[in-house]
Amino acid sequence: MSRSPQAKLHPVPVRAVQLTGGFWAQRQRLTIERSIPTLLTLLEEHGVVDNFRRLGSTTNYVQRRGPLYTDSDLYKWIEGAAWSLASKPDVKLEATIDQLVDVILAAQQPDGYLNTYWVEDRAGQRWQQQTGGHELYCLGHMIQGAIAYYRVTGKRKLLDGSIRFVEYLLRETGPGKQPLLTGHPELELALAELYRTTGDARYLKLSGYLLSGVEQERLKLRPSQLEYMFSGSPFVERTHFEGHAVRALYAATGAADYYLETGDAAYWKTLERLWADLVGGKMFVTGGVGSRASGESFGDSYELPNRQAYTESCAAIAGFLFNQRMLAATGDAKYTDVMERALYNGINSGMSLDGTLYCYRNPLASGGEKIRNPWYDTCCCPPNLQRTFAALGGYFYSTSKDGLWVHFFDNSKLDWKLESGTRIQTETKTGQPWTGDVEIVVSPEKAETFTLYVRIPSWSEKSVIWINGKPAEQKWTPNSYVALRREWKAGDQVRVALDMEPRLLRANPRVPEDYGKVAVQRGPLVYCLEQEDQPGTSVFDAAISMPAALVPEEKAGLLGGITVLHHKGLTFGSKVESAPLYSTKEWTARTPVDLTFVPYYVFHNRGPAHMEVWVPAVAAATVPKNQLAQ
Ligand code: FUB
Ligand code: ZN
Fold first, then answer.
1. Which of 38, 189, 270, 577 is spaced 20 to 30 Å from 44 by Cα?
2. Which residue is closest in CA terms to ligand 1's atom 3?
3. Is the pTM of this model over 0.85?
4. Residue 577 burial by CB count (10 A; 0-12/13-18/19+): exposed, middle or buried?
5. Where do the domains of the chain lie, and which CATH numbers do they carry?
6. pLDDT digits (tens, 9 = 90+) for 508-547
7. What is the whole-number distance in angstroms between the Cα of residue 300 and the centre of ligand 2?
8. According to the model, what pLDDT value does residue 571 have?
């Protein structure tokens, strides 16, 4: 997006940011050292790579395996592995990617078409089942993997292969020829990125064609298909999110990319409307999205079931990407707030603390079903998580005409340039997300006046900022960027004290599942109750006693090092289990109990267990005084 006309903010390259230690460095290291290599082994074991190999060989030595979209899993793995090289060069991994690129390209047809499913006896069905065929979805991920690898290494073999496929599309398909439809949106954003990478406007035009829905008549799509796919009809006529959550959010991300390049106001109007629909009634407090298992879909507004939440990891990532584009267009912290909610919670939960188990669903309550698994036949989420964590530094900072933007806080070093051309280095030291202290040392190569935009998160109500030890004069409010404009010189120091007071969030009363309940958040982390931490009390009998006191305790040895929150809560007592299902009795939580909350993202890392995020809140006043917890 560095040259996108409508982008107010421009991303810094992944390689410009080193995560130097702490929360995200740990997750990134795990991704690179454990998750990426072990997933490749599993992709091999499940035949995903052989699906390509067999086409490149003259003997077709194995049968194709897996669902028809497995190609995309390898492409996404390549994207993650490519970004990982930006933070940790690895000759062996690079050689592995090179070999995989050769295997992939050997399966490409002479005309440029490439898909391991729609070949051989299915070759005659190319483009005949576009609503579910995933040909363009796989191409989209091929392009994104190829661009990542090209950006990081300068190698363009895979990029050229993906361009050959796109050129095939431009030659053989489109108005007056074979109509095209993204049955699963994804190619839209990939084409915008290909345009940015190559400067070839035909690729952006193709993205616009896909978003325009001009082929709706020729393809004779049913309303239910238009809803499910979130494509096939004009994007600008969409009024709300519906249908398959990942599809819809990728479509919105692609449309936002299209807007960033074209400035088409109708797109912007639609994007803002969809965003309001998302955050107004369809996003979980963890940043997860997708309420229904049926159709992996959005529900109605306020339909946010906790235990049944579908909340696919890919959907949370898609929401993150959509908000990243909206942020780039505006510089408005309300978008970063959503990115953060998803990243620290509903995305972060997707990969286990040992980097080998993944959540496809990230529900907000669990009855102990197995949610973390090493492998899924539909293996979309694991490599999606990898590419997000591997590229993380690139989401932390941006530049704009007048300065540098700090979006997320973690220990990191930035080495990049201001848009004036001046080289800038920064070093951030922080205990985030556990403590509120943040120190940013700013070092432009020469003294220069510019604005340092530092995000003050929505959860930090009482922040304090110092510049070189003196209180900053600028004013700020939570959920905005404070604009620190001055002449900056090497070694200038900004200190921020973020407000880490635990907060209790309440849902709109129209969310029936959460009525009378609260969710606990501290800093960017949403917390939950897990059974292991409440010996003798079922998490489903527990209640928060209001007004609530939550006391943080650092536990270096627990779950990779976390801060837990202690609370003297209440339960309904031991009679609950033997009580009838229905009675006229009014239930009052009145037995004191020590409750311990852990961050949501660690749930089920000690094995499947009862867990819940939204906990009933009851007034302590209703409890006889002598029963109050000490
Ligand atoms: O269809 C490909 C992927 O599989 C989708 O993105 C996921 O939601 C899952 O359905
Ligand atoms: Zn997925």
1. 189
2. 380
3. yes
4. exposed
5. 10-397 (1.50.10), 401-497 (2.60.420), 504-619 (no CATH)
6. 999 999 999 999 999 999 999 999 999 999 999 999 999 9
7. 21
8. 94
Kindly give the parts of the chain with pLDDT less than 70. 59-60, 621-630
Do 361 and 284 form a contact (C-beta atoms < 8 A)?
Answer: no
Catalytic (active-site) positions: 296, 380
Cα(372)–Cα(357) distance, rounded to whole angstroms?
5
In sequence order, what E strands does 17-132 have?
17-21
Alpha-carbon span 615 to 103, nearest angstrom = 51
Q: How far is the CA of 7 from the centre of ligand 1 (A)?
A: 29
Token reading at 50: 């052989």
Verify cis geometry, omega within 30 degrees of 0, for the bond prior to 433. Answer: yes
Question: Looking at residue 622, what is its pLDDT?
Answer: 54
Say if residues 534 and 565 touch (Cβ distance below 8 Å): no
Distance CA 300, CA 318 (A): 19
CA angle, 605 as apex, 602 and 606 as ends, to 5°?
Answer: 130
Q: What are the CB-based long-range contacts (under 8 Å, 24+) for 550-559?
A: 550/502, 550/520, 550/522, 550/597, 552/500, 552/502, 552/522, 554/434, 558/598, 559/353, 559/598, 559/602, 559/605, 559/606
**Helix %, strand %, coil % for the chain, to 5?**
40, 20, 40
The total number of residues written for the chain in this structure? 630
pLDDT, position 573: 83
Closest ligand to the CA of 141: 1
Quote the CA–CA distance of 151 and 132 in Å, as a whole number. Answer: 31
pLDDT score for 307: 98
Residue 383 Cα to ligand 2 middle (Å): 9
Beta bridge partners of 16: none
Strand duo 448-456 + 403-406: pairing: parallel
Contact between 547 and 620 (Cβ < 8 Å): yes
- Could you give the CA distance from residue 367 to residue 613 in angstroms, rounded to a whole number? 12
